[in-house]
């Protein structure tokens, strides 16, 4: 299936993108030309999703941020 490149030149941040609907959303944006930043609280799963997209010739990177609860207010 060919996809349009309607998101070419766009960067897209997809949260919860390590699996399920989030991963499918990241894949679809990437298929349509977006540079995708895959984020999730599970860093290994986020990297697996990004690596899978890159393996398909798509542009994706993983990023995980875990809040520090001990930060002063």
Automatic annotation (TrEMBL):
Alphabetical keyword list: Oxidoreductase
InterPro entries (alphabetical): NAD(P)-bd_dom_sf, SDR_fam
GO MF entries: oxidoreductase activity
Pfam families found in the cross-reference section: adh_short
Domain of life: Bacteria
Family stated for the protein in its record: Belongs to the short-chain dehydrogenases/reductases (SDR) family.
Name the record gives this protein: Short-chain dehydrogenase
Organism from which the protein derives: Streptomyces resistomycificus
Taxonomic lineage: Bacteria, Bacillati, Actinomycetota, Actinomycetes, Kitasatosporales
